[in-house]
Each structure stands twice: as C-alpha cells, then as structure tokens.
Amino acid sequence: MAILGAIVAHQHPTSTHSTQPETFGFRALKPAIATYPQFLEKLVSSLSAADHALCANALQLINALMRDAITHGGEAEWPKFIAKLQEMGVIKAVYSLMQSQALQDLAHPLLEFQALTKVLLRKWRDVPVDLHKPEHRRALKAIHLASNPEKPSEPVEDGKDGKERKHNPEKWRRLGFETESPSWEFEETGYLGMMDLADYVRKHEDTFQKLLLEQSVLSPRIRCPVARASLAVTAILYDQFEADRSDLDDAKSYPALESRSNYDKIFKPLILQWSRLHLAGLQAFFRLWKTTGAEREDFLKLAELVRILLEAVVGGAKREKSVEEVENEIQEYDYERLRQLQMELFQLTYEDTWGHHLRQVRDELNHEALQFMKEQRIRCLLAGAWFPNNSPNNSQKTESQQPSSPRYVKLSPNRRFLHYSDFPTEAEQNQDPDIESLPKKLDLSLISSVASNISTKTPTSAHSSNSASTVKNIPSQSSTTQITIHGYLPSSPPSTSHSSAPPPHGHSRSK
C-alpha cells in the first residue's frame, strides 16, 4: 500500500521558488523497482489470482505505472519498461481476463489497459523512422540480414579513404520497398510499421527467405512487395482498432459498462494479439496476391481486399472468440467470398452516398414516363383506333364461326366522351369514320376502373394436326389484350357492374 500511495500521491511544493524538481509516480518508484526486481513479477502474477479485488488492484497499479512511464518516463525509459512488462506476461494475463466471465468486476481497469494499449500504438506510430538513431538503424539492418542477401559481384568505391565496398543495386527493392531509400516509406506507420516488419522477419526468418527466393525468379512487375504488404497490414490494423481515438473518447465508454450487453462492443481483446493478427493479415495478403495473379499496379486493390477481410473477421469477432479461431477464419476466407462481400459493401456505400439522389431521379423519371404514356394513349384515342370486338355477346361464338365485327373507338375533342360503333369491316387507311358517324358514346365520368388481361392463343390449323408437318407449318402464337371497363350506372349508386349501353368493355387488341 505504501508503494501504491507513492504512485498516486502528488505533493505540490509549498513554495513557488523551490528549485528542487518534483519526483513522483514512475520516477519515484524506479529506484525501488531496480532494487527489488521481483516486485513487477509479483504484480503481474497477481493478475492470475482467484481474488478479483486483488486482480483489480494489481491491474490498476500496472495501469498507473504504464501511464506515468509514458507521460514522464522519457523516450529512452518508457519503451524499456513496457518491454519488461510484456516479457513478464502482462499481455497474456490481461487477454485472459478480458475473455473471462469475471469481466464485470474488472471492467474499469481492463478498459483503461485497453486505452493504454492504443496510446502505446499511437506513440510508436508517431515516432518517425530515423536512420541516424542506432535502434532504428539496427532494426533495418536486421531485416536486411535476415533476407540472406547475396554478395554483389561488382565492388563500388565507398568514398572514404579510397576503400571499396560491395553494393547491391536492389538491396531494398528486393525486400519489397519501392526505392533504395526505405526510410520515407515508413512515413504512414512510423516506427510501429518497422517493429511489425522486424517482428515478422525475426519470428519467421525461414519463411521470409523462402518467399524472397520465390519472388526473385519472377518478373519485377508481378513480384509481391513483402515490405509494403507488411506496412499496409499495420495501417489496416491501426485503423481497425481505432488507435487514434483519444482518452476522452474512451472515457465515454465507462457509463456503458453498467450493462453486460455492451461488453462485446466495448472490449476488443484481439488488440492485445497485435503481432498474431499482423501475421495472419500478411499471410492473407500473400495468398490473395498469388490467387488473383496481381501485378505491381494492383497493390492498392489487394490492400483494400485485405482491409475488408480484416474488418469482416476481426471487426465482427465477439469478445469470447479466441485468436486461433480468428486466424483460421482469415486463412479459410477464399477470394470469391471476399469479392462478393466487397461488392455488397460497395453497394451499401453507393446507396448511402447516392441512394437518396438516385431514388429522387427514379421517381421523377417514373412520373414523367407515366405522364408520357398517358398523353400518348390519349392522343391515340383522339385520333381513333380499331379494336377487335370480343364483347360478352360475341364471346359465346365457337371457333368455327366467323370472327366478330371490328369496333372503332374515338375520344371526343373535349375528352369527356368515348365514341364507338361496330362496323362490318375495318376501313382502309385514311378512311376511318369521323366522330359524327359514331352514335354510341360512353361518359368518362362514369368510369370507375379499367382492367386489362393479356392472353396467348394458338389458332388451330390443318397443318398442326399432321404429325409429319415441318416447323414452318407450326402456327405461331398471338397475344390478345382484353380491356374491361368498369363504371357506374347513371341512375343507381356506385357499383362494380359494367356501364350501360353496350360499353366497349369487350374490346381487345391482338399483338
């Protein structure tokens, strides 16, 4: 408790003229930790205790040490302290707690640890790669040496004391960088991208060398850029876990901890498995590159596919889902399924961006098309048209009888009456009857609805009954549109009966 008190206590000097610097927090405990190194081991081991209160207190103390080390420890101090905690297994212990059923008792310190993990990722990302720094230069050199480089055949003058050194003209492009000056390519991911690439090379050196050997026999145009792929996966994971979110944004999640239903949304234990997710995403990138036969110009398209893959698998993973299950799901996600998901997301994005405007344009076009069809049909009726007369009186005729007489229909100029009459034969072109020769008429104000029915009829023929007839003798089908007009009787209340005075409800038109 004395150590915990030293962590949280902050004694302000009583005199403003005091020249003694304040010593508190991590800096105050640093000498004690150096004297008693087993203290941190004991603290990390307490995270596995059955007593939830002890776990919560131990994690709160670790959080306080981490936050103070990041804030006041200096650039050379806090990375060492964080690395020491990781070596002691704090990541594994906290990951188990986040997936356990005891989450409710440890919710606040666990959420703070998750926020601190984002702070660490953000700190590493914001550190620019500078080859003048010894640790950055050593990391990049280790990546190069792990690739098993070949010695160049032509020596090149070093310019120092007239000595000669050997230089490979594709030293860095061979590893997947775009140029021979790789430091600028870490601009987006910073030192975090270098750490991920170095970690992959160190843990999978044999695979890395084999991959480069396979790429060396291919044309530079179709080689998979390993280094750029690693940096792309780092950037994708960084965006996936929203590492740029500030502490204030994370603090807004504390009220949501009151309900267990919000735990899957708030807690992301997979962020603690960053290295394994980076490896899974990088392997998926290599697999998709080979499956699609991608070329150098397709790099951004492949990166977008990997982004969609990680968003679907990692972003959709529940809190209890193990990292092994996530790795297997990423590995089994084939290209066809991923491409279908990409098109669905593209459709949703397209709908969100342009859906409202497109629906508005579609409604306007539908309205204009409807008005155009109405006006077109009205003009046809104003000009007059011939219809086959299939009225109920004529529908009882058998097929052996002569067809019914044609009916001529024309709309009055004032568009209030529909004039019609039956004729023995259809008049020739330009000799249609005028409106005065059509004695029957229908008041359009009495029409309640118009129904149409399209039917297909195959006329009988002597050739069709002959089994030896050729295809040319097979009669063709004709479609007939029957129009039925429903209306009201002038002297009765509204009804669904046909209008009076043989209305043109039996009109049909063959197509």
Cα-atom radius of gyration: 41 Å
The percentage helix is 40-55%
| Largest beta-sheet characterization | 4 strands, antiparallel
Tell me, briefly, the overall form: elongated
Number of helices: 17
Write down how many β-strands occur, each being a DSSP E stretch of 2 or more residues.
9
- Reading the helices and strands in chain order gives HHHHHHHHEEHHHHHHHHHEEEEEEE
Task: Provide a short characterization of the protein structure.
With 511 residues, this protein is of the alpha+beta class. 48% of the residues lie in helices and 10% in strands. Mean pLDDT is 79; it is low at 8-21, 394-401, 461-474 and 494-505.
Annotation keywords:
511 residues, 3-stranded antiparallel beta sheet
Layout: helices, strands, pairs:
Blueprint: H1 2-8, H2 25-35, H3 38-45, H4 52-72, H5 78-87, H6 90-99, H7 107-126, H8 134-146, E1 155-157, E2 164-166, H9 190-203, H10 205-216, H11 226-240, H12 247-251, H13 263-266, H14 274-292, H15 299-313, H16 323-332, H17 335-383, E3 385-388, E4 406-411, E5 417-422, E6 440-443, E7 447-457, E8 478-487, E9 508-510
Helix pairs in contact: 1-2, 4-5, 4-7, 7-9, 8-9, 9-11, 11-14, 11-15, 14-15, 14-16
Task: Walk me through what this model shows.
- The chain is α+β, with helices and mostly antiparallel strands.
- The protein contains 17 helices and nine strands.
- The strands form three sheets. It has a four-stranded antiparallel sheet with strand order 3-4-5-6. A three-stranded antiparallel sheet has the order 7-8-9, with no helix packed on it. The protein has a two-stranded antiparallel ribbon with strand order 1-2.
- A hairpin with a 5-residue loop joins strand 4 (about 405-410) and strand 5.
- The chain is elongated and about 120 Å long.
- The termini are far apart.
